[in-house]
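Re-running the complex after MR caught last week's input typo. The corrected sequence lines follow. Everything else is unchanged.
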Amino acid sequence: MPRPRFDKLTPERREEILDVAASEFAARGFEAASLNRILERLGLSKGAAYYYFDGKQDLFAAVVEAAGQKVLDAVDWDRLEGAPDFWLEIDRVLVALSQLFAEDQRLAGLARAVATMGGRASQALSSINEQSETFWERLLAIGRARGAVRDDVPTRLLQHALQGMFQGIDRYDTTAGDERRHGQLASRMAVDFMRRMSESAGTGPRNRTP
Amino acid sequence: MPRPRFDKLTPERREEILDVAASEFAARGFEAASLNRILERLGLSKGAAYYYFDGKQDLFAAVVEAAGQKVLDAVDWDRLEGAPDFWLEIDRVLVALSQLFAEDQRLAGLARAVATMGGRASQALSSINEQSETFWERLLAIGRARGAVRDDVPTRLLQHALQGMFQGIDRYDTTAGDERRHGQLASRMAVDFMRRMSESAGTGPRNRTP
Amino acid sequence: MPRPRFDKLTPERREEILDVAASEFAARGFEAASLNRILERLGLSKGAAYYYFDGKQDLFAAVVEAAGQKVLDAVDWDRLEGAPDFWLEIDRVLVALSQLFAEDQRLAGLARAVATMGGRASQALSSINEQSETFWERLLAIGRARGAVRDDVPTRLLQHALQGMFQGIDRYDTTAGDERRHGQLASRMAVDFMRRMSESAGTGPRNRTP
Amino acid sequence: MPRPRFDKLTPERREEILDVAASEFAARGFEAASLNRILERLGLSKGAAYYYFDGKQDLFAAVVEAAGQKVLDAVDWDRLEGAPDFWLEIDRVLVALSQLFAEDQRLAGLARAVATMGGRASQALSSINEQSETFWERLLAIGRARGAVRDDVPTRLLQHALQGMFQGIDRYDTTAGDERRHGQLASRMAVDFMRRMSESAGTGPRNRTP
DNA sequence: AATGAATGAGATTTCATTCAT
DNA sequence: TATGAATGAAATCTCATTCAT
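Corrected-run output:
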């Protein structure tokens, strides 16, 4: 994770650095991404880079954390907690997220890049995983408290299954021909899949997707 | 894809080559895998390698295709087609597959490696994608013919969603602590998720998982 | 030079081999040309290639010699010897040659490739140089016997200067934009340059080019 | 072309680098030259090389440009412009150049190397071609302004023909046995050839070479 | 607080040639 | 006569990282 010094930079510079790095990582994946290229595009010296970050992995971690924060912030947790119909609200949440992903093309790429790292990135990604788990745990916990989400399956298992399902849809989206229509359909189906996977039995009518 | 010459090698050598390469690709992903390391471990000269394969990507494609074939072969398609209860048979199929994955640890790694390549590997992976689509299309087509699989969603979208879900579960499996018990649970849950995602409405009782 | 065995091949095969090799050498120059690529395109095995030729240089020599023979054969030496006006006949000769070069695009490329080798190709090119010298010596000797070509400069020097000049024009031709018109102009100017360089003083009017 | 950083090296180091590289390129031509060998001889690490240059072609371009500059600097343009007898002055210029080439053996080799690249080196050699054209355009423009150089032929055509002729003489020079005497003769003849090729008709007596 | 020169290992790939069969 | 498997050196280039200043 970035050294404390990194926070002393102006917010603009900080954001620019993470921005450019995000583009590279998202476009090429962690391994194929080139630190050199990132720094060149940034006009940042090698020395400076290693002054702020501990290396390539550390920069990657910072980038992904920032992206994760964006996702966390895009959800109105209080509203979700208080919503009368959990699944209806989830629908809103996912629509918001899919808009976020549509606006910031790098998010999907980063998600893919993280998935790639697998077991390899030992320490660097621990914070990322925590963050990711936070998101799902929070979301599923709320659902469970409402009795909307099944409790016959470990949270982490459900989380990974959902996460994977979303990534699969993302991959479909990426390779689909007619982009606009597919994007909408994919987003709608994602909600449907999520509900089917997570809903506790007997919660309500079988199929809410019109 | 490997040059025709490759097929002239003894089956043992062929398998050994694909085996070692599979280990490397599965363990590190495509980008981070080192062709050098593979050849070194094989005692194969660089020249020979390029005599049989067109390059790193080509070798990767061969490795993945062989793995894919294993998966295809693990399914008894005729039996699936004739089974009285589709979902019951699917359960058997997935159990078989999860055993296959458990036995050959590299399979999951390869699946991850393929997922990683994303758009980058253009031509080299076309055959792989075909193979993968073949598997799912076949499976879903049978399910649809039986009226067991919903038809309100494009096959490819469903395929990707399912594929991603399984990968998510695999990732859960990989990082879970108590391996044995989790593996079984995960496998059982995978069937449940798949059924929930794919089942056509009104097919039967809501939740078959006891 | 090709081993005697080479002559035992059918003329068609012989020509095909030299043809394909000529394309490669002409297109890439000697160093960058790939023997592998040539053999692949020919469907000729490595073993066979080394059975007929002594190696890359040897093949190159054979290719160039064949090309040189074409050039030698394109000149009607008897007619040149008996022509009433030497320079008028040279004009015809050069037009014929420039047509030959226009028809067989590889000739110019080969000429360039030979020029490249410089001192390096020690033995392999000796025959080529002999051939080349034969051409010019013959041509200049006739001109001298007629009193049309100056004799205050060593033949070999004149030869190299002329050869170089032609190559220069060839290079101009290659890079010129409007191909058709330039080709004609270049060919016409080549004769003019050659005459100016070679004509003995006081042979006639200053400028025959209309 | 070398990155700006290259100019920050000490002049000595800069010259040494270009020197060693020039030797290799001149001796073997571009394709056969080995970047590895150059760096080894220089005691320069690969990384450093690519820190200063963009690659082999880039280094080559730098080498040739430096050489070209030497040639341009060897001509006293002002004096040529003001000389009472253009061709007499050209004689001086060419003698100076032939001395330059005699002193720096690599120059001719480099000229040959450049000629070799032909169409292949697309962008890398654009600056070199400009430089070369500058030299000839300048020289011929002065001659034309004086009425000494014919204007019935495009400058670039004349330029290439002259350039080729000089290279031919250089090749003669290289392969000639008795070096000293030939060199002088060749230099003298080069002037004669150039004049014959370029002189506008009716400028003066037919043959100035005694 | 920052620079940027330098490293050197390692990447993938291509080459001409040999030789057992 | 002919094959084609095998070699291994060498090619160009990129990488993340270090460190003296």
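None of the earlier attempt is carried over here. The mean pLDDT of chain D is 86. Residues 11-32 of chain D form the longest helix (22 residues).
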